[in-house]
């Protein structure tokens, strides 16, 4: 179906407005397709279907290792033993690249412990799927699960900005019907926690991803005024200077990039 001119104009205006107001563009994504999958609510398909597909991707040595881990879980006689077994199972799935199941096992731990830290750990397992997986349905499952986990973490510890930061990054990676939602959350968090370094560094990464080199450099200069030896900020500055052919300035930042 051909897109009508007014719709194209609106999309173009949104991109221009985002670049002007936020300092970086929103990467182009297939919002319509992402929305269609999100509306299906893949969480209702059940973890068993996901596990069956994951089992089929395992090699025989992995299957043997998993069998031992599951047997250990079944034989757990106390909550601490159960949690320890679940941690090993989560780690197994994570190493295997099955981030949905790594997150699911971590989520089982969070249900046992009921802490913000445990829910945040579950969210981070799912979040890794957004970074590493290419299959669209698997990514959307990770998105939905991570969103829920970070919301639970925030409800238990509302003073820690980390949970909201990663929730916002979920929306950045899977924009859906509200493409500016994640960016708006990041800017709101920045205003509430101006000295929280992870927010600043993520805004730098977004600027780099959208080729907003001046914006990225300006933010990094502000960060490095306060934390001159911060390794991550220095490495990002090296990247910015390399991409903008300012090679004469790189050495002073390389020595702190480790």
Helices and strands in order:
Layout: H1 5-22, H2 31-39, H3 47-57, H4 60-74, H5 79-95, H6 99-113, H7 116-132, H8 136-156, H9 161-173, H10 181-192, H11 197-209, H12 213-226, H13 231-243, H14 251-254
Helix pairs in contact: 4-5, 5-6, 6-7, 6-8, 7-8, 7-9, 8-9, 9-10, 11-12, 11-13, 12-13
Order of helices and strands: HHHHHHHHHHHHHH
What is the overall pLDDT average?
86
Q: Residue ranges: pLDDT <50 for 5 or more in a row? A: 1-34
Number of helices: 14
Helix and strand composition category: mainly alpha
The tally of strands reads 0
**Radius of gyration, rounded?**
21 Å
* Major sheet summary line: none
Top keywords for this entry?
258 residues, mainly alpha, 74% helix, elongated, disordered N terminus
In short:
This protein is an all-alpha fold and 258 residues long. It is built from 14 helices and no strands.
Task: Walk me through what this model shows.
The chain is mainly alpha-helical and 258 residues long. Helices cover 74% and strands 0% of the residues. It has 14 helices and no strands. The protein has helices spanning 5-22, 31-39, 47-57, 60-74, 79-95, 99-113, 116-132, 136-156, 161-173, 181-192, 197-209, 213-226, 231-243, 251-254. The chain is elongated, with a radius of gyration of 21 Å. Mean pLDDT is 86; it is low at 1-34.
């Amino acid at each position: 179906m051909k897109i009508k001119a007014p719709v194209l104009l609106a999309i173009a205006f949104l991109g221009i407005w985002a670049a002007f107001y936020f300092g970086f563009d929103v990467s182009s994504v297939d919002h319509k397709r992402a929305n269609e999958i999100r509306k299906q609510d893949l969480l209702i398909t059940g973890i068993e279907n996901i596990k069956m597909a994951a089992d089929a991707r395992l090699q025989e040595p992995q299957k043997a290792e998993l069998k031992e881990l599951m047997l250990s879980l079944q034989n757990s006689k106390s909550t601490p033993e159960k949690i320890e077994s679940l941690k090993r199972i989560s780690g197994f799935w994570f190493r295997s690249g099955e981030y949905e199941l790594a997150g699911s096992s971590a989520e089982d731990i969070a249900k046992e412990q009921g802490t913000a830290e445990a829910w945040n750990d579950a969210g981070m397992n799912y979040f890794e799927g957004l970074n590493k997986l290419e299959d669209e349905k698997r990514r959307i499952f990770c998105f939905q699960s991570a969103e829920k986990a970070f919301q639970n973490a925030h409800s238990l510890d509302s003073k820690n900005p980390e949970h909201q930061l990663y929730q916002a990054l979920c929306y950045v990676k899977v924009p859906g019907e509200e493409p500016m939602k994640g960016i708006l959350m990041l800017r709101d968090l920045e205003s509430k926690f101006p000295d929280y370094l992870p927010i600043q560094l993520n805004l730098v990464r977004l600027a780099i991803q959208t080729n907003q080199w001046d914006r990225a450099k300006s933010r990094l200069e502000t960060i490095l005024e306060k934390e001159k030896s911060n390794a991550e900020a220095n490495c990002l500055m090296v990247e910015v200077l390399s991409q903008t052919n300012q090679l004469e300035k790189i050495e002073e930042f390389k020595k702190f990039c480790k």
